[in-house]
Amino acid sequence: MTGLIKPGYQPKESAQRLRNPPKRRAVAHDYEGSEQKALISWLHGEWRRGTEVGQAYPVTYHVPNGGQRSKKTGADLKAQGVKAGVSDLVVMEARGGLHGLYLEFKATPPRHAATARSQRDWLALADERGYGAVLARGLEEARQVLREYMGLPPTEVAGDRHRLEAGTDWKG
Known about the structure:
- By secondary structure, the chain is of the alpha+beta class.
- The chain has one domain (31-151): Trna Endonuclease, Chain: A, domain 1 (3-Layer(aba) Sandwich).
- It is built from 5 helices and 4 strands.
- The protein has helices at residues 12-19, 31-49, 71-79, 117-128, 139-151; strands spanning 60-62, 89-91, 101-106, 132-137.
- It has a 4-stranded mixed beta sheet with strand order 1-2-3-4, sandwiched between helices.
- α4 (117-128) links the parallel β3 (101-106) and β4.
- It is elongated and about 90 Å long.
């Protein structure tokens, strides 16, 4: 009879796998992502409580530059304008004579990642252009940065504000 396997037969590969099962890799934990989520959750709570630092919540956003992507997706995103090194969080609130805040967030040491050259270059560029540019290592340091920044007086615009004529009217 064809197609029948003798009782007790095991292919060599399966027998070897039984003797030496593959090692399971530990699940990698995203400490930076977890802490950044905690920071945003804290900021949301401060906003709901009506605190000064909480006023940053509606104008703070994350730039999703990191993460594993296929080469095609990476190339597509780059073609759409994604730039290496852009800071993790942006606060679209002008304070203390600054235009806004770029915050590069790292996990609390010793679980923090190295700051890439592109990230340091982006912070330098933001600083040169009149933005607050800060590296925060860990949740507590990031909270301190946000408290300090939102404690600064609002930046006032001197003179008339210019409105762009090009583009579609989004107000109407």
